[in-house]
Write a structure and sequence with these properties.
Helix 5 runs antiparallel to helix 6. The chain has 13 helices and no strands. With 296 residues, the chain is an all-alpha fold. The chain has one domain. The radius of gyration is 19 Å and the shape is globular.
């Protein structure tokens, strides 16, 4: 059990639910709430994240990418969990996650909204496929530099706007601003991971965006991933006339973090920043929720 918990990478889970918290908080602000949807959306997202982590462990393990990695060890690469065992875990996790997603969709739309249910079922299948195909298979998109795009779409736009739509059944264009912020911060976590692993990825033929642009350009790119969310969140608070001060607390850390990244001169220096940015993004979502629920 300890090994499977380690393979699930618990430190990534707070980041995965940040989008659900933001989307649900704005739904509450709009006058919509249903605790069942909140719980099932959180469970679905956690299932997708664990699925992605298991699939990543399996995909990189069988390709030898994790043989000399920095940071947390990967269980398949270390021989602690076999590739076959991890493959079965991926399948089981995908099935359970899909069942939870179906229940969530049924509660959100019922029998009378078949078209919307079908759209979200297809979206769920797409999310499961994206979680697996990041590193699994010959056409794994994580090996060709498209990981950043998929993380932005699924951790940001789909998570925030999609979860909000479960409550409201309509799309508010303003929500794309915080959705973009959460998406870009999630990409920042991936970018830190890829900067840490750049040399190992080059050897393994994993052409991440960092490998393609080089470390120095990746640091500049990282700054944009932190600064743009600060701007769009500020614009969003002005549009809905709410306080920016709680969110500013987290953004102060992000500004300090940019300086730490620029000064990093060893690949291992990026590893502790992963957890900090993931938890800070989670804190940002909690402060967003507190601001909308209590300060309004």
């Amino acid at each position: 059990m300890k090994n499977w918990i380690q393979a699930a990478r618990l430190r990534t889970l707070p980041l995965s639910v940040s989008g659900i918290i933001v989307g649900s908080a704005y739904a509450n602000y709009q006058g919509f709430s249903d605790w069942r949807i909140v719980v099932l959306a959180l469970l679905t997202t956690l299932g997708l994240q664990v699925l992605s982590n298991y699939a990543n462990d399996y995909g990189d393990g069988v390709k030898g990418t994790d043989a000399n990695r920095i940071g947390e060890k990967r269980l398949v690469a270390a021989g602690i969990i076999t590739a076959e065992q991890m493959k079965k875990a991926v399948i089981i996790t995908a099935i359970f996650t899909f069942i939870i997603a179906l229940l969530m969709i049924y509660i959100a739309f019922g029998k009378e909204n078949f078209a919307l249910s079908l759209i979200f079922i297809l979206l769920g299948i797409g999310s499961i496929g994206a979680a697996i195909k990041y590193t699994v298979g010959k056409s794994a998109y994580g090996y060709s530099g498209f990981g950043d795009l998929f993380v932005f779409i699924f951790f940001g736009l789909v998570s925030v706007v999609g979860s909000n739509f479960l409550f409201t059944h309509f799309i508010d264009w303003k929500l794309f601003l915080p959705a973009s912020a959460i998406g870009l911060l999630s990409v920042a976590v991936l970018n830190l991971n890829n900067m840490r692993d750049i040399e190992n990825d080059k050897i393994a033929g994993k052409n991440t965006l960092v490998v393609k642009m080089g470390l120095e350009n990746a640091k500049k790119y990282h700054s944009l991933l932190l600064v743009i969310p600060l701007i769009v969140m500020f614009v969003f608070t002005k549009l809905i006339n709410t306080s920016y001060l709680p969110i500013l607390l987290v953004n102060i850390f992000f500004i300090k973090h940019i300086g730490t990244v620029y000064k990093a001169n060893q690949y291992k220096d990026f590893d502790p920043e992963l957890k900090k940015v993931a938890l800070s993004t989670f804190a940002l979502s909690i402060l967003f929720w507190l601001t909308l629920v209590f300060l309004n």
